[in-house]
Design a protein that fits this description.
GO terms for molecular function: beta-glucosidase activity. Pfam families: Glyco_hydro_1. This is Beta-glucosidase. Substrate binds at residues 31, 132, 176, 309, 431, 438-439. By secondary structure, this protein is an alpha/beta fold. It has one domain: Alpha-Beta Barrel (TIM Barrel). 37% of the residues lie in helices and 14% in strands. The protein contains 15 helices and 15 strands. The chain has helices spanning 29-32, 45-50, 72-82, 93-96, 106-121, 137-141, 149-165, 178-188, 198-220, 246-269, 274-279, 293-297, 362-375, 402-420, 463-474; strands at residues 14-16, 22-26, 86-90, 125-131, 171-176, 229-234, 239-241, 303-307, 312-315, 344-346, 380-385, 425-431, 450-452, 459-461, 476-478. The strands form 4 sheets. An 8-stranded parallel β-barrel has the order 2-3-4-5-6-8-11-12. A 3-stranded mixed β-sheet has the order 7-9-10, covered by helices on one side. Strand 11, helix 14 (402-420) and strand 12 (425-431) form a beta-alpha-beta unit. Helix 7 runs parallel beside helix 9 (198-220) and helix 13 runs parallel beside helix 14.
Length: 479
């Protein structure tokens, strides 16, 4: 990827993006592949979690999902029809290295061999994510991300995948949204593996970052090309105080620390935010951080992936006080905000998606500008952006989703504004290519620009897919 050039404000009624801009769509292995027990794949934490009663809506699992494992050719043909020049996918760790350790699984890696070749034959650049939440269950049984050894198993896995695919994949990202893995998986228990321990969440956060750094080292020591790009995908956002009061501003500082700076500061500055450590010192001494870890975590990256969906609006709550002995409230409710459980979360103003998330493109523009001002001119790729709506085919078999079209238009306009303001933005990936298994929401939420009938596995291009195809073909967004 070469550096982008600032685009024109408007040419022929379109907001034009640079010629080298990456236009893509994104997916994740467990959400689309299915084939959960085929060709040597072993269970992941999401197989276990989704099979546990009460964890996933309607008891849905990713056992079949969108059956991408058996429909690879059809799905790449759809990408080609849409004109995508890039496609972001994740590799299933338990498919490629069953049980989390040991030799590579030939049948498992062969699937990704075929996928990469199909993409390249269609002139679509593969963008590979090594970890999108599907930790092998055997590693979780040994402590998961609270066990430091998991980071070293990840680096070994990264090297194995790079050895097989490094000659053809030019863009690599280590982790997807480690905040979700650590804070939702080990803090609030809303995601796999479903643990509810604030200390475990912070420990997992550090070991995920260590895995990232070790993974970067492993990739650079492997057979990936000299021009290959290596990065990390996070889900930062704009955290706004509900008022200018000192308490509300401090609430925003706390959540910004746990949502944004706890990931970006170690990777881009080689240090943890001192205020985050101070906010959590009553929970842990941070002794899981060993000498040399931060140097490893701060290994040079070539790009930062940003997943953006909505801003946050927060306010002060009552700080926790002494708990009477024997009180039923002695154990706080599980939370993804270690040390800041008392912060109130409010609904930002604006229209809502089917997830109940506020549509606010200004948050994206604000976030991109903030990253540049705080961390310098690091190349950024919007690796996920999209919206869920309750899509259904009409009597003619068409899927009309005007709200999603407007969502994409607004956020691409915000991305264009960031480009014109000097942000080094290299690409945009809509989430998602296909309707899929939406984690704890099962199949109840549809993010795809391509509709999937889960009974027949038929694919239908939504209006948003056709709109996006037009944007790609013309290199710009209609004003």
């Amino acid at each position: 990827m070469t550096s982008t050039v600032r685009p024109e404000a408007s040419v022929d009624g379109r907001l034009r993006f640079p010629a080298a801009f990456m236009w893509g769509a994104a997916t994740a292995a467990y959400q689309i592949e299915g084939a959960a027990t085929e060709d040597g794949r072993t269970p992941s934490i999401w197989d276990t979690f989704s099979a546990t009663p009460g964890k996933v809506l309607h008891g849905d699992t990713g056992a079949v999902a969108a059956d991408h494992y058996h429909r690879l050719g059809e799905d790449v043909a759809i990408m080609r029809e849409l004109g995508l020049n890039t496609y972001r996918f994740s590799v299933s760790w338990p498919r490629v290295r069953p049980n989390g350790s040991g030799p590579i699984n030939p049948a498992g890696i062969a699937f990704y061999d075929r996928l990469v070749d199909e993409l390249l034959n269609s002139r679509i650049r593969p963008v590979l994510t090594l970890y999108h939440w599907d930790l092998p269950q055997e590693l979780e049984d040994a402590g998961g991300w609270t066990n430091r050894e998991t980071a070293y198993r990840f680096a070994e896995y990264a090297a194995l995948v790079a050895e097989r695919l490094g000659d053809r994949v030019g863009v690599w990202t280590t982790l997807n949204e480690p905040w979700c893995s650590a804070m939702l998986g080990y803090g609030s228990g809303e995601h796999a593996p479903g643990r509810t321990d604030p200390v475990a969440a912070l420990t997992a956060a550090h070991h995920l970052l260590l895995a990232h750094g070790l993974g970067v080292q492993a990739l650079r020591a492997s057979r990936i090309g000299a021009d290959a790009q290596v990065g990390l995908v996070i889900n930062p956002t704009s955290v706004r105080p509900v008022s200018a009061s000192a308490d509300d501003v401090d609430a925003a500082r706390r959540i910004d620390g746990l949502m944004n700076r706890i990931w970006m500061d170690p990777v881009l500055r080689g240090q943890y935010p001192a205020d985050v450590q101070a906010d959590t010192e009553h929970l842990t001494e941070w002794d899981f951080v060993h000498d040399g870890d931060l140097d490893t975590i701060a290994a040079r990256i070539d790009l930062l992936g940003v997943n953006y969906y909505q801003p946050m609006l927060v306010g002060a709550g009552e700080p926790p006080g002494p708990v009477p002995v024997g009180s039923k409230d002695a154990v706080p409710a599980p939370s993804p905000w270690p040390g800041s459980e008392h912060v109130r979360f409010l609904q930002p103003p604006g229209p809502l998606t089917d997830m109940g998330w506020t549509v606010d493109p200004t948050g994206l523009r604000e976030l991109l500008g903030r990253i540049r001002s705080d961390y310098g001119d690091i190349p950024i790729v919007i690796t996920e952006n999209g919206a869920a709506y309750p899509d259904e085919p009409d009597p003619s078999g068409q899927v009309h989703d005007p709200e999603r079209v407007e969502y994409l238009r607004g956020h691409l306009t915000a991305a264009h504004e960031a480009l014109r303001a000097g942000v080094d933005l290299r690409g945009y990936f809509v989430w998602s290519l296909l309707d899929n298994f939406e984690w704890a929401w099962g199949y109840s939420k549809r993010f795809g620009i391509v509709y999937v009938d889960y009974t027949t596995q038929r694919r239908i291009l939504k209006d948003s897919a056709r709109w996006y195809r037009d944007v790609i073909a013309n290199g710009g967004v209609p004003v």
